[in-house]
Amino acid sequence: MQFLITFFMLFHSVFAFSQPEVKALRQLFFEARDSEKKADELYDKVGDYQGNSAILIAYKAGAHALKAKYGFNPMSKLKHVKHSQQYFSEAVQRDPADLEIRFMRYAVEVQTPAMLGYSEHVEDDKALLLKGLREYPASGFTPETGRIARDFLRQHCACSSSEKEFLQQMQI
Fold first, then answer.
1. 90: nearest Cα among 106, 78, 105
2. Domains along the chain?
3. pLDDT score at 15
Protein backbone atom coordinates (compact mmCIF):
# COMPACT_ATOMS: atom_id res chain seq x y z
CA MET A 1 0.00 0.00 0.00
CA GLN A 2 2.81 2.40 0.89
CA PHE A 3 4.35 1.67 -2.52
CA LEU A 4 1.11 2.66 -4.30
CA ILE A 5 0.84 5.91 -2.36
CA THR A 6 4.46 6.76 -3.13
CA PHE A 7 3.98 5.86 -6.81
CA PHE A 8 0.89 8.05 -7.18
CA MET A 9 2.54 10.97 -5.38
CA LEU A 10 5.59 10.69 -7.64
CA PHE A 11 3.42 10.32 -10.75
CA HIS A 12 1.38 13.38 -9.80
CA SER A 13 4.45 15.51 -9.07
CA VAL A 14 6.12 14.53 -12.36
CA PHE A 15 2.92 15.17 -14.33
CA ALA A 16 2.28 18.52 -12.63
CA PHE A 17 5.88 19.58 -13.22
CA SER A 18 5.75 18.63 -16.90
CA GLN A 19 2.74 20.84 -17.69
CA PRO A 20 3.66 24.30 -18.90
CA GLU A 21 2.88 27.15 -16.54
CA VAL A 22 -0.01 29.25 -17.87
CA LYS A 23 1.53 32.55 -16.79
CA ALA A 24 4.68 31.80 -18.80
CA LEU A 25 2.57 30.75 -21.80
CA ARG A 26 0.53 33.93 -21.51
CA GLN A 27 3.70 36.01 -21.65
CA LEU A 28 5.01 34.06 -24.65
CA PHE A 29 1.70 34.41 -26.49
CA PHE A 30 1.78 38.17 -25.89
CA GLU A 31 5.41 38.52 -27.00
CA ALA A 32 4.93 36.22 -30.01
CA ARG A 33 2.72 38.71 -31.78
CA ASP A 34 5.92 40.61 -32.64
CA SER A 35 8.52 37.84 -32.44
CA GLU A 36 8.78 34.71 -34.53
CA LYS A 37 11.35 33.39 -32.06
CA LYS A 38 8.82 33.68 -29.21
CA ALA A 39 6.15 32.07 -31.41
CA ASP A 40 8.48 29.12 -32.00
CA GLU A 41 9.18 28.91 -28.28
CA LEU A 42 5.44 28.81 -27.52
CA TYR A 43 4.92 26.14 -30.16
CA ASP A 44 7.79 24.08 -28.71
CA LYS A 45 6.10 24.18 -25.29
CA VAL A 46 2.50 23.36 -26.30
CA GLY A 47 2.37 22.44 -29.99
CA ASP A 48 2.25 18.74 -29.18
CA TYR A 49 0.22 19.01 -25.98
CA GLN A 50 -2.04 15.95 -25.62
CA GLY A 51 -3.72 16.59 -22.27
CA ASN A 52 -7.25 17.67 -21.31
CA SER A 53 -6.66 21.15 -19.89
CA ALA A 54 -8.87 23.61 -21.77
CA ILE A 55 -6.48 26.53 -21.22
CA LEU A 56 -3.46 24.55 -22.44
CA ILE A 57 -5.41 23.41 -25.50
CA ALA A 58 -6.21 27.09 -26.15
CA TYR A 59 -2.52 27.97 -25.97
CA LYS A 60 -1.85 25.11 -28.37
CA ALA A 61 -4.41 26.68 -30.69
CA GLY A 62 -2.70 30.05 -30.33
CA ALA A 63 0.67 28.48 -31.08
CA HIS A 64 -0.71 27.04 -34.32
CA ALA A 65 -2.18 30.42 -35.26
CA LEU A 66 1.22 32.02 -34.74
CA LYS A 67 2.88 29.34 -36.87
CA ALA A 68 0.45 30.37 -39.61
CA LYS A 69 1.29 34.04 -39.11
CA TYR A 70 5.02 33.52 -39.52
CA GLY A 71 4.91 30.73 -42.11
CA PHE A 72 5.84 31.19 -45.74
CA ASN A 73 4.19 28.23 -47.43
CA PRO A 74 0.48 29.02 -48.07
CA MET A 75 -0.56 25.39 -47.64
CA SER A 76 1.30 25.13 -44.34
CA LYS A 77 -0.23 28.41 -43.17
CA LEU A 78 -3.72 27.14 -43.98
CA LYS A 79 -3.03 23.83 -42.19
CA HIS A 80 -2.01 25.72 -39.04
CA VAL A 81 -5.08 27.98 -39.23
CA LYS A 82 -7.33 24.91 -39.48
CA HIS A 83 -5.59 23.24 -36.55
CA SER A 84 -5.86 26.45 -34.55
CA GLN A 85 -9.62 26.59 -35.11
CA GLN A 86 -10.04 22.92 -34.21
CA TYR A 87 -8.13 23.34 -30.95
CA PHE A 88 -9.97 26.55 -30.06
CA SER A 89 -13.27 24.74 -30.61
CA GLU A 90 -12.13 21.94 -28.32
CA ALA A 91 -10.93 24.38 -25.65
CA VAL A 92 -14.18 26.38 -25.69
CA GLN A 93 -16.22 23.20 -25.61
CA ARG A 94 -14.29 22.06 -22.52
CA ASP A 95 -14.64 25.42 -20.73
CA PRO A 96 -17.02 27.84 -22.49
CA ALA A 97 -16.97 30.37 -19.64
CA ASP A 98 -13.18 30.82 -19.53
CA LEU A 99 -12.63 34.41 -20.62
CA GLU A 100 -8.94 33.91 -21.34
CA ILE A 101 -9.74 31.15 -23.82
CA ARG A 102 -12.45 33.25 -25.45
CA PHE A 103 -10.09 36.23 -25.61
CA MET A 104 -7.37 34.21 -27.33
CA ARG A 105 -9.84 32.86 -29.88
CA TYR A 106 -11.17 36.38 -30.47
CA ALA A 107 -7.65 37.79 -30.89
CA VAL A 108 -6.80 35.15 -33.47
CA GLU A 109 -10.09 35.27 -35.37
CA VAL A 110 -10.30 39.05 -35.57
CA GLN A 111 -6.88 39.07 -37.25
CA THR A 112 -7.56 36.12 -39.56
CA PRO A 113 -8.50 37.19 -43.10
CA ALA A 114 -12.29 36.97 -43.39
CA MET A 115 -12.02 35.31 -46.81
CA LEU A 116 -10.74 32.15 -45.08
CA GLY A 117 -14.03 31.76 -43.23
CA TYR A 118 -12.42 31.20 -39.83
CA SER A 119 -13.78 34.26 -38.06
CA GLU A 120 -17.24 33.00 -37.17
CA HIS A 121 -17.01 33.56 -33.41
CA VAL A 122 -15.80 37.17 -33.42
CA GLU A 123 -19.11 38.79 -32.49
CA ASP A 124 -20.04 36.24 -29.81
CA ASP A 125 -16.59 36.38 -28.23
CA LYS A 126 -16.50 40.18 -28.39
CA ALA A 127 -19.87 40.38 -26.60
CA LEU A 128 -18.70 37.93 -23.92
CA LEU A 129 -15.42 39.82 -23.42
CA LEU A 130 -17.14 43.19 -23.13
CA LYS A 131 -19.62 41.70 -20.65
CA GLY A 132 -16.71 40.24 -18.67
CA LEU A 133 -14.94 43.59 -18.61
CA ARG A 134 -18.12 45.37 -17.50
CA GLU A 135 -18.53 42.88 -14.66
CA TYR A 136 -14.85 42.96 -13.66
CA PRO A 137 -13.62 41.81 -11.14
CA ALA A 138 -16.52 39.42 -10.53
CA SER A 139 -16.34 38.10 -14.10
CA GLY A 140 -13.34 35.86 -13.69
CA PHE A 141 -10.84 38.04 -15.53
CA THR A 142 -7.60 38.30 -13.63
CA PRO A 143 -6.16 41.83 -13.53
CA GLU A 144 -3.51 40.77 -16.05
CA THR A 145 -5.87 39.14 -18.56
CA GLY A 146 -8.42 41.94 -18.07
CA ARG A 147 -5.81 44.57 -18.99
CA ILE A 148 -4.61 42.58 -21.98
CA ALA A 149 -8.17 42.06 -23.25
CA ARG A 150 -9.10 45.70 -22.66
CA ASP A 151 -6.01 47.00 -24.46
CA PHE A 152 -6.44 44.60 -27.37
CA LEU A 153 -10.11 45.53 -27.77
CA ARG A 154 -9.15 49.21 -27.72
CA GLN A 155 -6.90 48.61 -30.73
CA HIS A 156 -8.66 45.89 -32.72
CA CYS A 157 -12.35 45.97 -31.88
CA ALA A 158 -14.96 46.99 -34.41
CA CYS A 159 -16.89 48.50 -31.52
CA SER A 160 -19.77 50.90 -31.27
CA SER A 161 -19.03 54.38 -29.97
CA SER A 162 -20.43 53.49 -26.53
CA GLU A 163 -18.27 50.33 -26.39
CA LYS A 164 -15.18 52.34 -27.38
CA GLU A 165 -15.97 54.93 -24.73
CA PHE A 166 -16.37 52.21 -22.10
CA LEU A 167 -13.02 50.64 -23.07
CA GLN A 168 -11.26 54.03 -22.94
CA GLN A 169 -12.61 54.78 -19.47
CA MET A 170 -12.17 51.32 -17.98
CA GLN A 171 -9.53 51.07 -15.28
CA ILE A 172 -8.03 47.78 -14.14
1. 105
2. 21-169 (1.25.40)
3. 39
